[in-house]
Amino acid sequence: MNHIDRLIVFYFSGTGNSRRIALWLSELALENNIPCCSYDIATTDISTVQPIDNSATIVLISPVHGFNFPEITLNFIRNLPKGKNRIVLMNTRAGIKLSKFIIPGLTGIAFMLAAAILKSKGYTIAGQIPFDMPSNWISIHPALRSRHIEFILTKNHDKVITHFERLNAGENDFASNKDIVQDILILPVALAYYFIGRYFFAKSYYASDQCIHCDLCIKECPVKAIEKVEGRPYWTFRCENCMRCMNNCPTNAIETTHGLWIIILLLTPVVCSLLYYGILPTSLHHGLAHFILFNFIFLALITLLYRIQQIALKNKICSKIISWMSLTHYKFWGRYKCK
Length: 339
Prior knowledge:
There is one protein chain. By secondary structure, the chain is α/β, with parallel strands linked by helices. The protein contains eleven helices and ten strands. Strands 1, 2, 3, 4, 5 and 6 form a six-stranded mixed sheet that branches. Strands 7-10 form a two-stranded antiparallel ribbon. Strands 8-9 form a two-stranded antiparallel ribbon. Helix 9 (258-278) packs across helix 10.
């Protein structure tokens, strides 16, 4: 007997991991004769979705960015109308294969914050389930090998089946509880990413001279964060770092500014020290003032130097040098897209 009368799945996906989980759930619902609708958060206006009957089970799936749900997902949750449905929260984290095991990622505050918002709207949280899908964060590490990706996908497909069966049997499923200690410990990092880190990574991307000006990255950006400046793509602070643009580019022209990272990380403490000890009065020499000044300079340098880099990319020699300083420029680094 099915305990899920109807399944409604909302998902946000950059390179396809969350979309893949949504697809597997839809297939399982079909096999069990359960009506199912699936919606992409990036293209769905919640006001246009037909009123959701309270008997329907809602599943919300999103990747974790900086140990929290990305802003697009949080905004969607905030805009959900009040309801009394059972909601199952799922996330996709960065999974890495090691021998016969998958090294799990961390959820951080993603489930805690989302659950708090949904409970305030009257919903019942029936599950919190993380999935360690193949890591797509190519800015940080090379793409996983094909056999590693297939191994991780197979393991997660089996995991989706297991959790679906539990939910359909009427059980609550809080698989995330086993990670609660490390998720709480990672709270400061999650907050730092939300207020500072995501803006740093938003300025990580640029289009090299391999760009064919197809504008696919601009057209497919789920949050419309990429604009045309100086004749090439330009990433604004709206970027969610979902990695769709970099991993979908047909010529691998989108690269990470590793050279600029080094310059910013070297310059920030120097400029901060000069201003802190040279300009600020001694009465303001305390930890909070230093912290605020450091982060202000950090963001200011990112904004300024990224703009200068955009101009420099117009010069072929400068463009080559910038690419040579990016690990993502080299073929061995690769790209990732969940098929």
